Amino acid sequence: MKISSIVFFIPVLSFGQLSPEIDKLNRELSKSDRVESSFIGYGEGESKVYKLFTEINKKASDKEVEYIALNGNAVSKAYGAKIAFRRKLKVMEKLITSYLKNNEKIITMQGCMESNSYLADELYQHIFWEKKNIKEKVFKRQYKDSIQSLKNPEKGLLDFVNMLDTEESKWTEKEIDSLLIQFDQLILNDPASSQSLVEFIAESYYYYTEIKHPEYYNKLAYFEKKYHSEMIRQYLEFCSN
């Protein structure tokens, strides 16, 4: 009986651990009080925090990424969730459920713009904008191929196109839509969901995709009344017409 108990706990303990190298990187990442883009500030200096994120992305196993995304401070969770999404790990529902439950606030800095947000908001928006990224990478890849096919392309132009990020997403647009619908249900079923997150759902379908979801009406009406939100009200009217 004792032997079986020891065997049972081995995978549990190993899952909850990070390798020394990843643990060190994650500890450094956790010292930051905000999530940063690759270049920040008015001088567009390279973010040391983002460099830590890229190192973890290169070296961490899938299990380590999942552990980081579910544990630690809000900054490491946010970066861990981005990596989990990039790798298409089967943990997305667990992440959004955890982030909605804990409702953790986070500070983000994109370029020189700093703002307050929530972990759940950042994850949802990151996934939503992936569809745009997919389209942009297709365009960049086609442009890169066209330049490289020239007989004597200028070196400066060739260097520029070689710097373009053309790595294909592991997701299709159809899969993104399906994941967002799944997230919508989880968010709208939670009466504690933040105003900013519910408003982004309404805004994305109203302004960016012009998609009607009349099946969301009653739940959105609850949030419109709770937050007195003009954005949610506009989307409700849009769904009614």
Query: Biggest sheet: strands, sense, closure?
Result: 4 strands, mixed
Strand order of the largest sheet: 2-1-3-4
DSSP E strands, number: 4
Spans where pLDDT lies below 50 across 5 or more residues: 1-15
Treating each run of at least 4 consecutive H or I residues as one helix, how many helices?
13
Percentage of residues assigned to helices: 55-70%
Residue fraction in strands: 5-15%
> What sequence of helices (H) and strands (E) makes up the elements?
HHEEHHHHEEHHHHHHH
By secondary-structure content and strand pairing, the structural class works out as: alpha+beta
Distance between the termini: 66 Å
Radius of gyration of CA atoms, rounded to a whole number: 21 Å
Mean model confidence by pLDDT: 88
- Name the overall outline: globular
What's the gist of this structure?
This protein is α+β, with helices and mostly antiparallel strands and 241 residues long.
Structural description of this entry:
With 241 residues, this protein is an alpha+beta fold. 66% of the residues lie in helices and 9% in strands. It has 13 helices and four strands. It has helices at residues 2-15, 20-30, 48-59, 62-70, 74-86, 92-102, 119-128, 130-148, 155-162, 173-188, 195-208, 217-227, 230-240; strands spanning 35-40, 45-46, 105-111, 113-118. Strand 1 and strand 2 form a beta hairpin. The protein is globular, with a radius of gyration of 21 Å. This is DUF4476 domain-containing protein. It comes from Chryseobacterium vrystaatense.
